[in-house]
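User: I need a structural model of YhfT family protein from Halalkalibacterium halodurans for a docking pre-check later this week. Nothing fancy, just the predicted structure tokens so I can convert them on my end. Input:
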Amino acid sequence: MLEIMLMVCIGALAAVMANLGIAVFNDGIRPIVPENLEGRMTRKELGVTAFAMSFGLVIGFGIPISIAGSIILIHSILLGSDIIGLALDRGKVKTTIAAIIGGLYGAGIYMGLQVVVDLFTMLPLNFVDAFNKVGDPVVVSFMVFPAIAIALQFGVKKGIIAFAIAAFARQLIVFTNGAELIKIGSTPVVLSPEGIALVVGMFLLIFFAMREKSEETNLSTLATLFTDRVARIKKHRWILMLSGGLVAAATNLLLIAGDPISLNLLAEGKMSEGGIAALAKAIGFVPLIASTAIATGVYGPIGFTFVFAAGIFAPNLGIALLIGALIIFLEIQLLTKLATFLDRYPGIRASGENIRTAMSRVLEVALLIGGANAADAIVPGFGFFAIAGFYLINEIAGRPIVRMAIGPVGAIIVGIVGNLLVLLGLYTP
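Assistant: Understood. Predicted structure tokens for YhfT family protein:
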């Protein structure tokens, strides 16, 4: 009951914040919300735009990844809550309706996910275990995203250097773990090779970005231009703090995760590695989320996403709730200083979009490989054939399904086809 109530509260609160224009999860929608708030876009147009930008990600990305890891990817809830909140007009009655629908949606995602997994286990060809292979390449591949971001922003040469250093760091940790070179007393310390490689890559990205300094004497462009919009975010700090606390608490219970990488690590019981991945992802997304929040006056329901790391590392539910709320409070209070910092280091601000692009490209490749491996484990031979054809036909058709979703969705389709083949007597597992 506690878990269901948490999901209801998260869904309801996120829908209300979207409805009132306080916070939305989709980074692409956040800059559009002020167009409606300031009367340049109708509510109907905003709702249609939100649906077009988010629905495909919920169905094709959030839910399949959640099924694969048996932990709910936050995109499944918050993208749907964006649609619910933005589709309804503001007003006491409509906002209350948004809260009710959002709460029901949160509960539905929680209960529906388990129902789907249970149904899969009842099929003649149970492909749940094989489907879990979707996430296997994600954890290892994700450590390369800082090098890709560096290549996009600072050139291929620096990207290759960063990739080589991160790869060396990974193999060095593999060696030290095997040789038990790092110990606390007599107890060997085992470090995550991928986690260390990710941290090294992020350090190099920040190093390169901070070398670009502004030559202008007035270093507070963001802070001065958008004072009113920052004040608007601060006005709603308490509801945002509640959202951050609830999400951190749900993460502590392993109900939700903020990204596919930490989700897969948590599903494997690797708590510290999952926390490091969540922390690295949050650091990488600060420039993008901060810039859009400062410029629009619309925040994110999970802030800079540090609340996920807080939930993972917190010793219990209560502390996770408090730390999550405190993190959002500190983020909001520091927005003005952060604006000045981003103006002083334009390379950091520009890195936000490159980080997002790099993450997307890495996930596209990793999930495609994972989906192909899962599909081939479900129906050997046919799986690779199906995923390859599915991917190429999707490209020729103009990409109606986002690339990140091809692997997971394709694996589910192969599982369904495999069951039909078993029923027809054309395939024996």
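Before docking, keep this in mind: The mean pLDDT is 86.
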